[in-house]
Amino acid sequence: MTIFEDTAPQGDRHRPLRVAILGCSGSIGTQALDVCRQHPDELDVVALSVNSSLGALVKAAREFDVKQVAVAESARAADPVLDDLPKGCQVHKGERGVTELCRLPEVDCVLDAVVGEEGIWAAYTALEEDKILACANKEAFVSGGDLLMPMAKPGRLLPIDSEHAAIYQCLTGQRSNEIYRIWLTCSGGPFYGWTREELETVTPRMALSHPTWHMGPKISIDSATLMNKGLEVIEAHHLFQVGIDDVYVLIHRQSKIHSMVEFCDGSTMAQLGASDMRIPIQYALSYPDRWDTPADRIDYRRMHEFTFAKPDLKTFRCFDLALTAGRTGGTMPCAMNAANEVANLAFRRGRIGFCDIDRTIERVMEQTEVEPVQSLEQLADVDARARERAGKVIDGIQR
């Protein structure tokens, strides 16, 4: 049975739902806090984590009277700023401290908004502990989907990416053998229609400006390169148990159709809504119920057109490389993702050019020996080796 085929109400959901928000200072984390703020009778924030944004952590912990927090950057865990945490608040430190929050008996739901590969440990622990996992960390499933999906139970894994939340809603109650294909929508990013030559001139400031969504820096660059769509195809492959080539990416500049599912009889279901991440966040926390919208409603009478186009794989090579990694499978997506994270950061810091991101990823993939995915420890080793190789490639580019 897939994660979406069981539509029976989840009677074991505690009310109010006791939530741990991992990565509470980022874009998804702050919007999740806003959803919790709007539904105090339904949601109880009991644990929070940040990487190093201690001020934001203290502010949120005081507002929600949180008694368990974690600081992933261990060196910051003794900072005097934390003296202002609520009385009796326990501070966990390091990546291990973040995963410890997932094991707390008072946590019913883990909202994993940790950025990048590191989020896989929290996702794995949450599923292992039979918590509800509301997951905004696509890298966890890109690298470790082969490990995570056998652990996922229907109604216990809710995706938060707007596209995957849309697909989940279209598929709820449907039979997996009746899926013909998935249409995964994409805004096209800030450089839609640009040539490869034009992309060579892109600066970090230009790439950080997304036309539709307000996101963190890493995902903003991924959206500009279209790597984000490649990662989402691999994530959809795992979440919904379909082939990589059964997920079609569709450029939809208006960003109102968040994705569609086409069935074997020719029928297609689409999920539409405002471009506001609080909607999929709230759905993951309210499932199987729906609560009043946190966003402005759309008057579809004023929507004059919906347009669609194919992505340009030759120009946006990160997208094509991600598809290649997904088709290859095994540990290749993990290596590809690690190389992307390193190159993404190097570009943001001005060390390499925009098109050097895909050049770095390609070189690392060429050097990667693919193995079947067996454990988190193995993936950590693959990730480390890919990051080292990416660093060497970047050093060569700089020379």
UniProtKB/TrEMBL annotation:
Its EC number is 1.1.1.267. NADPH binds at residues 26-28, 137, 139, 216. GO terms for molecular function: 1-deoxy-D-xylulose-5-phosphate reductoisomerase activity. Residues 157-240 form the 1-deoxy-D-xylulose 5-phosphate reductoisomerase C-terminal domain. Pathway: Isoprenoid biosynthesis; isopentenyl diphosphate biosynthesis via DXP pathway; isopentenyl diphosphate from 1-deoxy-D-xylulose 5-phosphate: step 1/6. It is an enzyme of class 1 (oxidoreductase). Keywords: Isoprene biosynthesis, Magnesium, Manganese, Metal-binding, NADP, Oxidoreductase. The keyword Metal-binding applies. 1-deoxy-D-xylulose 5-phosphate binds at residues 138, 162-163, 187, 210, 223, 228-229, 232. Catalyzes the NADPH-dependent rearrangement and reduction of 1-deoxy-D-xylulose-5-phosphate (DXP) to 2-C-methyl-D-erythritol 4-phosphate (MEP). This is 1-deoxy-D-xylulose 5-phosphate reductoisomerase. It comes from Kribbibacterium absianum.
